[in-house]
Every structure is written in structure tokens, then in C-alpha cells.
Design goal:
It contains five helices and eleven strands; from the N terminus they run βββαββαβαββαββαβ. The protein is α+β, with helices and mostly antiparallel strands. The chain folds into two domains: 6-134, Impact, N-terminal domain (Ribosomal Protein S5, domain 2, 2-Layer Sandwich), CATH 3.30.230; 137-201, 2-Layer Sandwich (Alpha-Beta Plaits). The strands form three sheets. It has a five-stranded antiparallel sheet, with helices on both faces. It has a four-stranded antiparallel sheet with strand order 9-10-8-11. The protein has a two-stranded antiparallel sheet with strand order 1-7. α2 (82-92) packs parallel to α3. The radius of gyration is 23 Å and the shape is elongated. Pfam families: Impact_N. InterPro entries: Impact (IPR023582), Impact_N (IPR001498), Impact_N_sf (IPR036956), Ribosomal_Su5_D2-typ_SF (IPR020568). Belongs to the IMPACT family. Residues 22-127 form the Impact N-terminal domain.
Length: 202
């Protein structure tokens, strides 16, 4: 089995981590996200909790095969915050994730090098503090068949380690099945070999 049908992400937000440098405090957070709305909500929530902070810098990556990412310096010098945070997302090879580093300014300027180090370290700590999980990239199929084929279909589902996501059993059987991408072709061909069973990709 090839590994190109898996990806890594987190299921739960990390605990808050803290990195300090010259009186500045950098709080790091990692959140599981699926949409840009999720991202907006997480950042708004943090701004309420840390309303006295100076900067809320972040980076995120969404998607599995079609990747979308953004890095935001939030008023820090260009590329001194967002990109170092995003670098850690790449380094840990995770997706569907948002990392925010909240900075309280301590009165001493750190310089661009110091900022890059601080934001990178806080992001790294947030990721180290997260439980990273591996998930499979799954494809969904709709399968329609007469009751007499039930045992054949159940056997194919079992053989390819697929899951029934929903079923409608009326005059005939309608199943929505999800299967990891690496097994999808073989499952499709197995079902297709029965001429009176219909299968289509969703």
C-alpha cells in the first residue's frame, strides 16, 4: 500500500505554550480547522482572551491534495512571524491546521532575527504539544443494487476495508460507501464487474 493516500493533522486544539525572550511573551496555539470560517472564529476567540496583546500572528494550511495556505505577520516586520510559523507547519507535515502566536511586547526590541526565532519556536512548541494523527484520504461512492447482491457487496466492502456512510434500503439497496484512495480503483472495478450493480463516484 502506498502512503500517498494519508495525511497528518490534529483532532483537538493544543494546550497553550509560552516562549519568552527579553521580557516579550509569545503564546503558541494550534487548532484543527477545515474552513476559513473556522480560522476566523479561532482568531477572534483568541483576541478576546488576549485582548491586551500587541500582535496575533498566524499561519494556516487547508486541504489535502489541493493545498491552500496563508501566513500573516499582523504588524510585525515582513516575513518575521507568519512565514516562520508556516515553516513549522511544513516541517511537521500537517494540514487542516491553524497556528497562532500571540505576542505581548516586553519593551525591548528583538530585531528581525530574534522575532523569527521567537515565532518559529512558539509554533514548534505548539505543534510538539499537539497530538498529531494520521488519517486516510477517502473517496465516496454510491452503490445501487438488488437485495440478492447484498452478500456480494458486503464481501467487497469488507475486502477493501471500506465503510458504509449511509444506507437506504427500499425497493432496492442504496449505499454510500467511503474507501481509502489507495483501494478505490480496485473496489470500483470489483463492483463494476457485476453488470446489474451501479456504482458512481460522489
Amino acid at each position: 500500500m502506498t502512503k500517498d493516500d494519508t495525511y497528518k493533522t490534529i483532532n483537538n486544539p493544543s494546550e497553550e505554550v509560552l516562549f519568552k525572550d527579553k521580557n516579550s511573551k509569545f503564546f503558541g496555539f494550534a487548532f484543527p480547522v477545515k474552513t476559513e470560517d473556522d480560522i476566523k472564529n479561532c482568531i477572534e476567540e483568541l483576541k478576546k482572551q488576549h485582548y491586551a496583546a500587541r500582535h496575533w500572528c498566524y499561519a494556516y494550511q487547508l486541504g489535502i491534495e489541493d493545498i491552500k495556505y496563508r501566513a500573516n505577520d499582523d504588524g510585525e516586520p515582513s516575513n518575521s512571524a507568519g512565514m516562520p510559523i508556516y515553516g513549522q507547519i511544513q516541517s511537521f507535515d500537517v494540514t487542516n491546521i491553524l497556528i497562532v502566536v500571540v505576542r505581548y511586547f516586553g519593551g525591548v526590541k528583538l530585531g528581525v532575527g530574534g522575532l523569527i526565532n521567537a515565532y518559529r519556536t512558539a509554533a514548534q512548541m505548539a505543534l510538539e504539544n499537539s497530538k498529531i494523527v494520521e488519517k486516510t484520504i477517502d473517496l465516496n461512492f454510491k452503490v445501487q443494487f438488488a437485495y440478492k447482491h447484498m452478500s456480494r457487496i458486503m464481501r467487497i466492502i469488507k475486502d477493501y476495508d471500506a465503510k458504509i456512510e449511509s444506507q437506504k434500503l427500499e425497493l432496492d439497496c442504496n449505499l454510500t460507501v467511503s474507501v481509502r484512495k489507495g483501494n478505490a480503483d480496485a473496489l470500483y472495478k470489483s463492483v463494476k464487474s457485476f453488470h446489474d450493480i451501479s456504482i458512481k463516484k460522489l
